[in-house]
Specification:
- By secondary structure, this protein is mainly alpha-helical.
- Helix content is 30%, strand content 4%.
- It has 3 helices and 2 strands.
- It has helices at 18-27, 37-54, 86-89; strands at residues 96-97, 100-101.
- The longest helix is centred in the middle third of the chain and has 18 residues, at 37-54.
Length: 108
Amino acid sequence: MRQADLSAPRPYDTSVDATTVRRIAHLARIAVSDAEVPHLQGELNAMLAFVEQLSEVNVDGVEPMTSVTPMEMKKRADVVNDGDIADVIVRNAPDTVNDFFLVPKVVE
């Protein structure tokens, strides 16, 4: 992929206008002064230009990856257990039955 000069004028540089910048700021609940709008407009257009540049890359035959180094995620056994501390958990309960909290009935 070639390194592009993102500051060079491109046909899509006007894809984000001042109104859109203000709307994005409003939706993000960010206070933006009128003086900041042109700078943010340039920043957003530069980001969009970079994303558009990425779409030009040929990725045919490239496998999806989660890391740049081959690795396997650590996995634990998927077993249901009580954590072996049920008695500790219910120790301070006013009333229990077989390691379960016993509560008064509230719905008739």
